[in-house]
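Exercise: predict the fold of this chain.
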Amino acid sequence: MVLKHLQGKFERKFVELVYGETGADLVEYALILALVVVVAIFVLTTLGERIVAMFEEIVGALGG
């Protein structure tokens, strides 16, 4: 009985999340997050070697 009640509650919340405005907001946030991840990966792969060289230069200057 309790399990059936919880299942119904979960189903209603899921449908509300997917089809309601909250679901749209969630999708927008997910798209923004995906864009940030793609940009971060691009920057790190493009500038990665320069960043490593800069840190090595700093470590060398500090006597490491």
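Check your answer against the key: DSSP finds two helices and no strands in the chain.
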